[in-house]
Amino acid sequence: MTRAKALTRRALAQLDEARDPLTCAWFQLKLGLLTEEAGKGDGWAQIAKAQELVRGLPPSAVHAEVLSSAASWGMVHRPGREALATAVRAVELARVVGATVIELGARVTLGTLLAQSGDLEAGLAEMARARDEADEAGLTSVVIRAATNIAVELELAGRWEQAAAEAARAARVARERNRPNSYAGALASHAEALLATGEWDEAATLLDEAKGAARAADVRAWVALLRAHLAHDRGDQPRLVLAVEEVVAALGSSPVVEPQKAVALRHFTMVLAARRGDLQEARAELARALREGFRPGSYPQAWALLTAAAAHEAETRGLPGSAHGRGPVLDALRRAARQLPRPAPVWEGHALLLEADLARAAGANDPRHWEAAALALEPLGRPHPLAQARLRWAEALLDSGTPRRQAPRHEARRPAAAQGSDSGRSPGDPGRFPEDSGRSPGDTGGSPGDMGRSPGDAGRSLAGTGRSPGELLRAAGAAALRLGAAPLRAEAEALALRARIDLDDKPAADPAPTPQALPAAFDPAESFGLTRRERGVLELVAEGLSNRQIAERLHIAPKTASVHVSHILAKLGVAGRGEAAAMAFRLRLVTPQGAAVPGPVR
Hints:
Layout: H1 2-14, H2 21-37, H3 44-54, H4 61-77, H5 81-97, H6 100-116, H7 120-137, H8 140-156, H9 160-176, H10 180-197, H11 200-213, H12 217-234, H13 237-251, H14 259-275, H15 279-292, H16 299-315, H17 326-338, H18 345-361, H19 367-377, H20 383-399, H21 409-413, H22 469-483, H23 486-499, H24 532-542, H25 547-554, H26 558-572, H27 577-586
């Protein structure tokens, strides 16, 4: 690639733009493509130069290729009306001059832009016709590109089985015709569909193969992002860190990264900060993502980022210092969600997940929100988010035994993205978190109110669905086990231990438990084997104390405090103090006020 760039630059240096503008324009397009493939830029400067060179000249194949390149660049970086109009012009001009290869490529771009604009069926049909005509003409690159783009658009519409089949077709053609980079891209598209449908082992195999075949920087980055996705959901921290590093290396010095990749990278960078226990850096990464905004085509990655941010706010609720600034963060998440499209039922499901986590983060963990999310996701064939919703639904049912303020039913059912909790502020930049405006920390003003339930309601099914906490937990735990989603399985097991539910029982054999049925002396820390001293130390870790401060508080040696902390981390299966504190609050090992849950002396 380096040699190709050098030869292209040498050719441009020897050519006279005034005498041979078409040849110069052609070389500019090739230079732009090489620049983008190397991760050294987005290639737009070269496309713009080529447009300038052909402006005012008679129609030609080069002129058609310039328009087609501009439309393709717009499809990736700035999808919208302008890119769509450019694609239409490229197709028309290519037909006029008889440039069949360029015409078919431009039709693939046109079909993709039509699908992105909301006319999915028309876009898929245009791409399929171009793919079939290219196949008859033996135009391998067009066939592979069309099949891959069809797969991507099918994935966005939630039609994963069709997407997997189309991506497999593209991979087969690329392999047979020795196109390694296209093969890697098709494998990645196939793996993305399999990740959605829960076929994680097969997806991992495809991604390993794609990593070895990928040549261009953008494909290497895409493969690495999917590997990060898989590592995140499996709880494999080392592989997640490595995959994020691979993404950064692949994208290189490119001044403009594709929106999808930019948002996904922000997501995983935020997740890594959260897992380190660095709440402020996680919030800062979110703020940067919101300032940059979510451009067309990046909404799947945006939904994932917003939901992860809301879940992190919910899981750190009660940690020392976490309440300060939470209200503005939740407000910012709501404003961003209101701007995201929901073109298919799967994205409605993600919006409901976000709504439920926003309510949980605000202290109103309403079972009805998780019920709505779970029921929306059930028919869609996405086992991991469905298992997450079922787990949280069970948790909310078990937690709802404490009487709470009754919220109006219409308010509790409103989507979080539509609730609007700006408290009279101007919308402003959604990437900037506004001040609290005098609210108490964590009070977002737009979350549904807590539901008023009698203690006995906690174990009963909701809204006539017949779901009990035991049934929901067993379904979530079984899905997590099948997927290899270690964090989800660990949470299901911990919650089951706390509620005295056997995850291996059949649903019919387990009557729905209620908080009153639990022994009064039940200690959730007992399931982790924590001693009374370790519970006391965990309480102080959750307060944010250092080993020396813990030693001073408990009148023990700093080395002894360090040993206790090490034992706690090992028993909880976490890597750091921040993660231990978050887990302690989430699993009720300590109370939000910092007092350890009482347990028997051992």
